[in-house]
Amino acid sequence: MFTKKAIDLIIELRSTDSIPHYNDGSIKATIDEIIALYEDLIKTITEHKEQKKEPYYLTHAITFHNSINRDKRCILAYLNERLNRIKEFRWSSGQSLLPDLLKEKLSQNEIQFFSDYDKILTEYNSKVGLDLTVDPQPPKELYIEVRVIKELGEVVLNSGCTVNLNLNTTHFLKRSDITTLVKNGSLEHIL
Amino acid sequence: MMNDEYGNSNNNYKELTLLDKLKRAWINEKYAPNLLIYEEDIIRDVMEKIEEKESLCASAISNINLQFTANIYEMEIERLKYIIKCYLVERIKKIDKYYTSILLQIENGDEYDDKLLSEFEINYCQKYKALMDGYFKNTLLNSIPKDFQKMDSNAINKPFLNTFVFCKPREDLGDFLVDDETIDFKKSSIYFLRYLPIKSLVEGGKMDLI
């Protein structure tokens, strides 16, 4: 059956909320199918120019044409949904670097996309003067208590003061100074 | 709640309305399915106020007597920044989703559409579109036969305007024809309607979404 591989791509993506491995094999196979279908389609049209209005050839052409479009649509949907999930990662983590675990699941183009997207977003953020990706919670208090879960040593905060963030110590610090550290998992907010 | 924190400020009235405007812009943007016009004046005014108060706080923080007040101000600044962030994020998410149709709207639109995006957002939107187009070309479109390389025109994401929204008129608007039914919009009432018929009222600032 035509477009089988393309539909499998969509099903594969829909079965999970995370980012699965980039299915290069299926995409290549689908592109090959598109090219094969296209050649067949052109052949049918050119060889039977006079009879092309006849239902037999007409249905043939339409079926091939629609199959190509469906293949294309499925691949685009697959790629687009993956990009959405990659962007979601950029927004929820606030990081501009991909962790290795995720990196090996992405294609070369997607890694390139991530760094380009990061560039655009960072540029926009610096122009409006606010980092839109950090701090998704409404601020309740100015200072919060945090515990250090990754050894950081001496750190200079945005507000200018220096603190010693040693492992397993707790600190009472300004929220806006340390939200990035909380987000990347170096500090833990004690409730 | 917010009113109390501004209690002792001299230009009490002005700040209050500015904050209300900001909140209104954010909530409208949050619940409207399409991208609304960029509230340049409000954002600029609020940013100016924030900068002014930030420098005030910076000078007050060294004085032990003013520290408590300064902390309250800082808290308030954090809150304002949070609202602005939410507003801008809401807009960026919509731009990410509908970038092609937004750029088309600006290209073919009138004066109203020119103000749809802020200067930075236009920059972002164009770069984003270039990035997306380039990506799809590299991964798929360049590898398939020429006749099929163009993007389908119906593959453009458009906001779904027929969704239902809660809305509240800013003033008494009188009778309006909505879906073959005349509705008398009254200031104190809340309505649950399809978005499309009231789109122009929301964009014209006569109706707020809630």
Automatic annotation (TrEMBL), chain A:
Pfam family, one: PSF1_C
Location of the protein in the cell: Nucleus
Broad class of the protein's primary localization: nucleus
Subunit structure and binding partners: Component of the GINS complex.
Keyword set, alphabetical order: DNA replication, Nucleus
Protein name (Swiss-Prot/TrEMBL): DNA replication complex GINS protein PSF1
Function: Required for correct functioning of the GINS complex, a complex that plays an essential role in the initiation of DNA replication, and progression of DNA replication forks. GINS complex seems to bind preferentially to single-stranded DNA.
InterPro entries: GINS_A (IPR021151), GINS_bundle-like_dom_sf (IPR036224), GINS_Psf1 (IPR005339), PSF1_C (IPR056783)
Entry GO terms, CC: GINS complex
Domain annotation GINS subunit: ranges: 37-128
Membership in a protein family: Belongs to the GINS1/PSF1 family.
Domain DNA replication complex GINS protein PSF1 C-terminal: residue ranges: 140-190
GO biological process: DNA strand elongation involved in mitotic DNA replication
UniProtKB/TrEMBL annotation, chain B:
Coiled-coil residues: none
Subcellular location: Nucleus
UniProt xrefs under InterPro entries: GINS_A, GINS_bundle-like_dom_sf, GINS_Sld5, SLD5_C, Sld5_GINS_A
UniProt key word Nucleus: yes
Pfam families attached to this UniProt entry: Sld5 (PF05916), SLD5_C (PF16922)
GO BP term (any one): double-strand break repair via break-induced replication
GO CC annotations, alphabetized: GINS complex
Domain DNA replication complex GINS protein SLD5 C-terminal: 159-210
Residue ranges occupied by any GINS subunit domain in the UniProt entry: 65-138
Superkingdom assignment: Eukaryota
Keywords: DNA replication, Nucleus
Family (UniProt): Belongs to the GINS4/SLD5 family.
Function (record text): The GINS complex plays an essential role in the initiation of DNA replication.
Name the record gives this protein: DNA replication complex GINS protein SLD5
Protein source organism: Dictyostelium firmibasis
